[in-house]
Amino acid sequence: MRTAFVLGGGGLLGAVEVGMIRALLERDIRPDLIVGTSVGALNGLLLASDPTLQVVERLTRMWIDVADSGMVYSDGPIKQVTRVVRTGTHLHSDEPLRELLVDQFGDQTFADLAVPFQCVAASIERAAEHWFSDGPLVPAVMASAAVPGLLPAAKVDGEHFLDGGIVNSIPVGRAAELGATRIFVLQVGRIERPLTAPTKPWQVARVSFEIARRHRFAREMAALPDGVEALVLPTGGTSRDDNPLGYRDFSAISGRIDAAYDASVAWLAEHLPENP
Is the full-model pTM beyond 0.85? Predict the structure, then answer.
């Protein structure tokens, strides 16, 4: 049996993945392979560097530090407007995120990780998903987490990339392609929430994008080969992110982590009553 952890994208909602990781590792369920998208690439990278319970403290501290400082999206309105006018493409600088990653990983490469890890980004020039699996870690995760409109496109080897969630929000199919036979899906809760018809202009794009990514996830789940099992962990009901400014709301980080941990512990006890 080859076990994969698939970590989906979702901005600040990605804190729930920390609770899921803790629940899995406490059950001594450890990954042989990790694939991630966007914030799931960030969480997945830390896990791949240290696939033990010690990483939970490291992940939690990172999330709490980011919440306390607001470092990733710390620019005020004046700086945001100035940057949009100057660049025409994004609100925030990507330097805080880059500094966070460099501080953690420096010039390490994929080959330095304890567990095989891949992350996905959207290539602008090729209009295609691109999987990073070798070379330097920091540029790869920066590319996977380059949220359109919020952060600039990441440039890697002359090619420009945007957030991996555009092309593959929950890459369960990739894990199966790489030989996983048991896949734990760590998703941020959006697929748990029913969609409703948009009533405001800003909701139209969000609902449209949500349909596209849920459709791909459902299609990949339905197409999993015989003998491949995918287990979708619950978030504990922390998936409400309809506020368009919600990407800056760090206030619920600890609650999201704890709720996902409690829900995942209960789910695992019900669906995997004995240690696999």
Answer: yes
